[in-house]
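User: These chains co-purify. Model them together.
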Amino acid sequence: MKQASVLTIMPSALVVLAVVLGPFLVLAWQSTRDLNYFEQRNSFVGTDNYVRLAQDEAFLSSVAVTVKYAVAASIIPVIVGLSASVALYSAPWGGRIAPLLLAPFLVAPIVVAMVFALLLDGQLGLAPRFLAALGVSDPENIVGHGRRVFWSLVAIDTWQWYGVFAYVFYARMKRVPLLFQEMVVVSGGGALRKLRDVWIPAMLPVVAAVTVFKVIWSLGDAERIDALTAGGGPHGAMRVFSIWMERQYFRYADFGYGAAAGILFYFIALVGIGVFILLLRTRRELS
Amino acid sequence: MRATCVKHLSAICLLFLVLELGCRCDSEQNGPSPVPSSWKDLATASKPYANSKLRILGEDLPPLHSLERLRSEFSGTAGVEIDIDFKNHSKVIQSILEGALSNEYKYDVIFVPHKELGRLVGTGSILPMSMFAGQPALKNPSFKPEEQFFQPFWTEVSTYKGEWYAMPLYLGGSVVVYRKDLIESPEEQERFRTAYPGAHLAEPTTLEEWRRLAEFFYRRNEDPPMYGITLLMSDESLWYNWQSILFAMNGNVLDAKHGWEYGDIVVNSPEAVAATDLYRELSKYCPPDASSYSWGLGIAKQQAGVSFMTLLQYDVVAEFEDPEKTQLAGKFGYFIPRTEAGDCASQLESWVAVIPASARHPEAAWLFLQWMMDKEVQLRMHLEGNISPRKSTYEDPRVQAMPATGAILESLDSMVPKPTIPEADAIQDIITRRLQSILAGSASTKDALDAAARDIEERLRGRAKLRYPVE
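Assistant: Joint model of the two components:
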């Protein structure tokens, strides 16, 4: 019986292994070579590419800005989405307007980048006028200012994603039986206990899943950043890992080095997400 | 039963055989015309390739659009259809790499930045033009590029180590687009005399005069504000923009006579340090968000009158003379950055057409490119907005009357070649990063250029040595 079940899953397991493990092994093999197609180099170099990466300022700064961006562009939309879902849940017409929140997500990222590029433009955009009205210094400098362009990109990401998250959270809230809430009330509990005993246990798994999904998505985000910052933003401040990697691989054809960077970044992301999931699990066990 | 099946199968096979033979006879009768023995005209030369379709890939640039508008004339004469695929810069580069790796380009002609020649030649990805130029049936005897096109431009962008591989789409070089109407304004002249006693507001003839113009027109607090100069400091354009000033101050990256040579690394020379300091000084008079400007945004801002001047390249000057694109059309002037001694110097740049080794119709592609370089076609492309590298174009009175023509012709003898070696792109990336650290204020000019020199030396793996040693 057991043998039969193994045989049954074997074909799909093989396909998954070939699709997931195959490219990873090719990448691992490439990462041990000095492999540059255009410069006609191909020799075994062991861990040299990894050593080079550890000393490469451009790589290290691209990883740092990517991680910072992925965290900010995940946590903020999730918080805004959660707040919006609470508002929807509390409002009697919440169910009717919830689907409308999906609208920003339907706009292609490149279109979003073009629209916001115009809004944020120093001389032609509306955002600098708004900042000037608020008394912000140097209001015309948004995309040319490292910190401002970073937070602008996070804000754009939040605008595009919070609706999807709000919709998902709202759907989950509607599935929580009213009985649980009534039980808390009957046993003399207040709003805080309701939050602790009903809402947090019900919402935490879906919030965690959505956050992990968004972090993974943001780690690979390049199209919108590239379009809005003309390849990396002011003085390379927004040269995220995907942009850096694309250059190593596709522009310089430095396959060995690019592969090593890909593997290293994969592990950095894996460890980060692993730690996040472990923290959540610990939190759940404690509660 | 089995016998019946065999009979049916035999009949079907026989039917296929008859049909196949019929088709072959038909194709032989109506097939390609025999190749003529010598050049008569384009229509005759292209007869063997009639009804074929040429697929062309290039960046979405104004010169390629002017070629697109004229392509029907080639198709009408040669009977060869032209399909141009416009992509953005990085997609074109990605397509080149994919094609080179698979040796299976989908295209018959690819327009690439001329700096890519080293990589494409080194990997055998493109065909030498001598393959076609050596065939009397394909080569128009009146086509003599070495004589008919500007030198050293032609040699630098079309050849690699003495072999001919490419045809230039346009003549590229440094140019400053400025507001001529403001320079001629009596109020501005008066204001200038007050600000700089004894000086006269005019087109600059030295680098110091240029810097002073940027300073004078920097009026950030006026309504509407105006900026002295726009420099394109984004990742994509910084390297090109900086080189315009580098060459004007007799600096260079590699001290080589030709782009395909390595030469000494001189990016940290005193001239390069001085040029970079001037670039940084000029950046103070830019719009504050210019560190994110690439070509498109730089052009748009100048068209909108945001800055007094913008450091650009020739191939976009038509964008400033079209009343449909800017209300300031007719009010712009053009000058070339000058050396300290007052001579002008310009970088040498082009996108060039190459024929991939895997092209399906290489002969037809050659005929198309030869047609593109023709005297009449070059003139028409120039009048459409392109900048022609052919000398005869500038004999036409309409071209002579164009506002940018004088500046372009003035710079032709002093064009400085740029690296076309396989590592050219990597050098660009190294220098861009180091320049960004200077402009961001996180490194001194000398330290950053020394670091760039060291990085380039490491990247070139012993092929070039440092002329200015770094501790």
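The longest helix of chain B spans residues 2-30.
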